[in-house]
């Protein structure tokens, strides 16, 4: 088949004449008034025995007319646009430096920005690492509170891309990812597992609450009640599991370790 050419019909097509050099006979194509101003493809085969004219119809199909004068409609296959979806990197856990004592506010602001940007698929949990501890009031009343494991830090599970990295960094109150060379460094799996066991303890395991004791080894304290009231000493051991401290007190000139409930002492 030899293609003669493509041309545009400016007005209503009232027929076009094509010369067949082999036979010397002009051939006229049927009138196609309903396909004006559309590209026309005219071709003839190698022997010149037949002439074909095809016009693209408005709906994307091809109307074809041959020498015999019969028209046929051929369905044109649409060309699909190739779309390459960006492959999402795997989610990993990272540590974020944030403003001290604003951890909860910053976490909520970041969650809101993620939702507004429509990138929830790139993010997992955003956690403030905490643990439940028991505290005692001055009257000895026990209560359970949450204590931050790493004040000034958040744990975030996310897929790091240029866009998600920028979204996190531009959130008010967030400093940067922990890492070296300006690149976020993911946490080690064993470290993530250890922290998550504290933050999200298994429901089928009984948890032993620690007691929040505001003293450390070497702190100077005074006994405020009990047999050794008003005596001062130095903290030697802290037992958070049982809420007790061991204080070295000088009794008759000798250093004696005394175990007390932590609420029985106060800073000296």
Topology (elements, then pairings):
Elements: E1 2-8, E2 17-20, E3 25-28, E4 39-44, E5 51-56, E6 62-66, E7 71-74, E8 92-98, H1 103-117, E9 123-127, E10 130-136, E11 142-148, E12 153-158, H2 162-169, E13 174-177, E14 179-180, E15 183-184, H3 189-199, E16 210-211, E17 220-223, E18 232-239, E19 244-251, E20 254-261, E21 265-267
Parallel strand pairs: 10-16
Antiparallel strand pairs: 1-4, 2-3, 4-5, 5-6, 6-7, 8-12, 8-13, 9-12, 10-11, 14-15, 17-18, 17-21, 18-19, 19-20
Offer a quick outline of the entry.
By secondary structure, the chain is mostly beta strands. It contains three helices and 21 strands. Helix content is 13%, strand content 41%.
